[in-house]
Amino acid sequence: MSESTEWDSLDWLSSARALVKWTNSINIDTPIALVVRHSHRATLADYAQMLSGGLTELGSRISFEMGRRLRIERPAGIFTSFVPRCSETAESIAKGFSDAGGRVLGIDSLDTLFSPEYSEEKIWENLQPDGRNVTEFVNKWADGLFGNGIESFDSFRSRLRSDTVTRLKAATEPVMHIHVTHDLALMSLKRSLLGRPLVVADREPYLGGIAIVRVDSRLSVFAGNTRKSLETRL
């Protein structure tokens, strides 16, 4: 099966396909930010693998195809978690974007795209290695149920928004910022932008995520898994 056929046929790519379609519909003079979950990886069995797991061959191919399908009129600045499955996703997206004729401004690592700061390893016992309960974890964290062993949700949310939304607000030229991250950071940003506790359906599949553009004094936020956009304050 070719990369193009895989992109069009795999069910778990529905969110990524919707995200690319919406992104490509935005006027090319408008700066835009994408925040996406990494591509396909093997199932993670324990916490150690959470820090080291990379992409499958399928994951690399599909990341390349996603980059190839994005409109190339805007240059792309790419930001990523340092964990292999994210950095490999970022590199493959960059290769696909370049292959299509786009210009990549660079790939930079951001700590906020990895995780909040923490001092107690046992915090992660509350998060299943494969992330299936990530929405519940974020809601409990936001409610302060994990104590002082982890950075407060409000602190992390502020830093994450600074690295994503504030960077977009500061853009003076048409540019596309692509942020490749994990469930945890993506769901934290989503809760912040939605302004409500998360539900299980908010979780994004591989390469799914959100797109953000400025609309005067507001943000227009598109969620790939619902194929819906909303407006929220800057």
Describe the structure.
The chain has 234 residues and is α/β, with parallel strands linked by helices. A hairpin with a 2-residue loop joins strand 5 and strand 6 (218-223). The protein has a 7-stranded mixed beta sheet, with helices on both faces. Helices cover 40% and strands 18% of the residues. The chain has one domain (3-210): Rossmann fold.
Quick tags:
234 residues; 40% helix; Rossmann fold; alpha/beta; 18% strand; globular
Secondary-structure blueprint:
Elements lengths: L2 H7 L4 H12 L6 E6 L9 H6 L4 H13 L6 E5 L3 H16 L4 E6 L24 H9 L10 H18 L5 E6 L1 H12 L14 E7 L2 E6 L4 E6 L1
Parallel strand pairs: 1-4, 2-3, 2-4
Antiparallel strand pairs: 1-5, 5-6, 6-7
Helix pairs in contact: 1-4, 4-5, 6-8, 7-8
In short:
This protein is of the alpha/beta class. It contains 8 helices and 7 strands, in the order ααβααβαβααβαβββ.
**Which architecture per CATH?**
3-Layer(aba) Sandwich
Mean pLDDT, as a whole number? 93
Tally of DSSP β-strands: 7
- Residues in β-strands, percent: 15-25%
**Rg, Å, rounded:** 17 Å
Unreliable spans: none
Q: CATH homologous superfamily - what is it?
A: Phosphoglycerate mutase-like
Number of helices: 8
